[in-house]
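Give me the fold.
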Amino acid sequence: MHVTPESDQKIANMKFFSVYPHYVTKVEKKGRTKAELHQVISWLTGFSDEDIQKMINEKVTFEEFFSRATLHPNASLITGVICGYRVEEIEFPITRQVRYLDKLVDELAKGKKMEKILREG
């Protein structure tokens, strides 16, 4: 599937605070916790719980969110299909990073063990 520059820009301009409640709902519906969600977000971005809340309060875009992040060195190990796209083939960095996050949230909701989600061995 080919991603257009317009769809890349749309994703970059999406507000993190507007998507975050959907992440919480998705994982809690499957018996996981907000704390586990934050652990996954922190692993990917290097953000603390306070940083995550600050991003929500500031209503940052995903572009701003990921510009402030320090991606985990193992983030490139996040592979597979999310939203119809193979994550590792997405060229636009912001779109790929958002899909990394989507994939981690999806794995959390599907009940994967935290060690697997966080690419630890």
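The first strand starts at residue 81 and ends at 82.
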